[in-house]
């Protein structure tokens, strides 16, 4: 067997060449130290932050978010915007309409001018910009409040049905089926005479506008909660079999604690999605009711009522129908696209290109 030659050091001691194993070990240790120092600098992100990051990557959702914020700010600052224009929502400018041709606006495009930015209403002389801004307030208020109420009721019912099961689940599920199958618009229209009589506040037939809005919100919420309840129920049926729920029962936690402290925090994503999609649906429903004469009481501004009135003047003044119609389309489309973007951002398993 051939032996490796040894090298003699200047001191007279024999030794070997530099050990490659020791060098590799030292390199690995330094690399591990660098990785450890790098990992310590990484900060964990919450699910909400990760969802916001996904949402920011979606250009359509961000454009929809910007449009939604603009509409909300316009509704909040409606008095400021109308003060800049110089006209209130029910302040008539009789000089802007021509009584010789059926009280249609002077000029082209429905009377659009520096005095009236979006023109005036035929017949009344109301400033269309002020009517649209205050009508946006009504539509957003009804849509948001009714969506909030329906979401709260739907979450409570869905939690109870999914967690308790048995006859409670059967009863609540049958109620959901009836509500989902009920013709909402026909039911409200059929009750219009009864509601109108209940609204009478004096002998002259006056109507309390706040009471009318409250009834609209309650009517819409009474039919919208079932969608959220069915969604939450399906999620709870899966979550109630998880280990953390069993651990809570073993530790003696009551059903209130399990429902609202254990299950509810794990349902915020589908609940937020349901709320985001309910708002545009409720706004559309409110506009349809006002269009059919069951919504906001004239002359109070509302987009559905504007579209209903504008249909009578469309052939001569199409601008009166075109402007509120396009704005309603943009608002509902932006809210729907934003709701879809929120759903995709909250679902990490969604297929994104």
TrEMBL record:
Pfam families in the record: BPD_transp_1, OppC_N
Membrane topology: Multi-pass membrane protein
Region (Disordered): 1-38
Biased composition (Low complexity): 21-38
One Gene Ontology term, aspect cellular component: plasma membrane
Regions that span the bilayer: 60-81, 140-166, 178-199, 211-232, 267-292, 320-339
Protein name stated in the entry: Peptide/nickel transport system permease protein
Origin species: Streptacidiphilus jiangxiensis
